[in-house]
Design goal:
Layout lengths: L4 E2 L3 E5 L5 H8 L15 H13 L7 E7 L2 E19 L2 E10 L8 H16 L4 E6 L4 H9 L3 E2 L10 E6 H8 L1
Antiparallel strand pairs: 1-2, 2-3, 3-4, 4-5, 6-8, 7-8
The structure holds coenzyme A.
Length: 179
């Protein structure tokens, strides 16, 4: 079970089936999935994919949080994930990745960075992880900026999916971000 998280402007709640339609609608925007491979073009496969990822047990403290504005808690803004990296061994052991997705109408308001920082704090302070990764298409400038803003550093030494840039973050990096 994931904890609820909150920030200055946002509520992050464990993603549930109640968020399914909103997640699918967000993914149907081609600008949202522009840099993300997935079954977006096949409605049935897309729904099955999201359903599976909502219902799956990702391990203690890992999974997806849906983002809502504190001032409008019924309005879905996107999600942040904290998941095991593809079951592959990377670096010195099993790695955990962070990711983010926001509905296009809410881009550019700082929501992804604000929500991601709450999940980063959970990763280090609650789960005690030693580091987290983000794998980002090098053309996805907005996502790279989010990674940089929350204190992640590009690391060319970590093996990755072909073509992606890898960003890493440790607890010390978070201390610097919190200034
Ligand atoms: C990436 C994404 C989550 C960012 O969400 P957001 O809430 O707009 O992010 P933030 O407002 O916290 O920060 C975005 C930053 O990127 C910058 N940015 C956005 N688009 C940019 C672009 N094309 N080029 C350069 N910078 C860009 C913004 O100016 C902002 O930086 P700033 O605060 O220094 O001005 C959102 O665009 C999205 O959902 N994209 C589609 C899904 C996706 O690609 N997810 C990541 C997969 S790795």
């Amino acid at each position: 079970m994931l904890p609820d998280l909150s920030t200055r402007r946002l509520l992050l709640r464990p993603r549930t089936m109640a968020d399914l339609d909103a997640c699918i609608a967000m993914d149907r925007d081609p600008e949202v999935t522009r840099f993300i491979p997935g079954p977006w073009a096949d409605a049935q496969a897309h729904e099955a994919f999201v359903r599976n990822r909502v219902l799956r047990n990702w391990g203690p403290g890992l999974g997806y949080w849906s983002i809502f504005a504190s001032a409008a808690p019924g309005c879905f803004l996107g999600w942040v994930l904290l998941l095991p990296v593809d079951g592959e061994k990377r670096g010195d052991g099993d790695e955990v990745e962070i990711g983010w997705r926001v509905v296009r109408a809410a881009w550019g308001l700082g929501y992804a960075s604000e929500a991601a920082l709450a999940v980063v704090a959970h990763a280090f302070d609650t789960l005690g992880l030693s580091r987290i990764l983000a794998e980002i298409d090098p053309g996805n400038a907005g996502s790279i900026r989010v990674a940089e803003k929350i204190g992640m550093r590009r690391d060319g030494a970590v093996p990755t999916r072909a073509g992606d840039a890898v960003f890493v973050m440790t607890r010390d990096d978070l201390r610097r971000t919190r200034f």
